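Our preliminary data section would be incomplete without showing what the modeling component actually yields. Below, a chain of 310 amino acids is followed by its predicted structure, encoded as tokens that our downstream tools consume directly.
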Amino acid sequence: MLREIAATRYLAALRSGGSLPGIVEADDLGTYVVKFTGSAQGRKALVAEVIVGELGRRLGLRVPELVFAHFDPAVAAHEPHQEVRDLLDASAGLNLGMDHLPGAVDFTPGALEIGPLEAGRIVWLDALTANVDRTVHSPNLMVWPSLGVAPKKLWLIDHGAALVFHHRWESAAASVEKVYDFRDHALGGYGPDTAAADAELAPQVTRALLDEVVALVPDAWLRDEPGFAGPEELRAAYAAQLTARAAVSAIWLPRDFPSAAELSAAHARRAERTRAGRPPWLRHVPDLHGRPEAERDWSPLLGPGGNPER
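Predicted structure:
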């Protein structure tokens, strides 16, 4: 089971995402980022966080520790914003916490060296679990530690948008072999070796492993799903879906990623569209380096080899 903690102090809301998670201190003296059951994404986002995060951990990927966080809205009585207060008031009880990595920074391409196999493993997990929210525009990756002499490492966060099949269980079986478009994946510029990752990881995704992972999801987040008799039947459906998908990985395995030139051209086109949509007086406002937007250097988004200044 995941550890359980109780929030003792509410520090701040994180407004960078639509789910408005919060940073809390807990009774174990730790600090956690908590995702709340009262958010607009609902409890299925928390189910996806548990299943994908814990599956990734068992496959050897770095995911901050997940905990079950008991939350009493009274500890956040000082929160001044009404929309946040409404969210917290609707989230009394059990929520999901993630270890807060002190000093961690958002991943930006070029921030650290990432080998093709590590990139391939992450892309493979995202493809298996239909995680469509790890793109160059929304990487959902952290670098930690970011300072000091310890080696910088890549950490995976925010898997609430994965497992898209569980929003339409009636068509889930038809999505077992579905191929998703990962050309804009955050690590596409690192030459992901998805074939090697598949050979390593696919045999590990067994029904026994998936049963172990889905057993971590609380009954309260699995109740009242239309078409299922109860939490145990729904757990079995999650495990069966992912077992079947892992077995046909040769069909959906992402293999083709844009070249550095293609990525650069795509970003240039996007910049030109943005520029064209601005009023004339704003079209030539330079960036911090004195270049108009259409002339900016997008190469840091391309990964190793894409930046001529590396």
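Residues 176 and 245 are 5 Å apart (CA to CA). The chain has a mean pLDDT of 90. Preliminary results of this kind motivate Aim 1 of the renewal.
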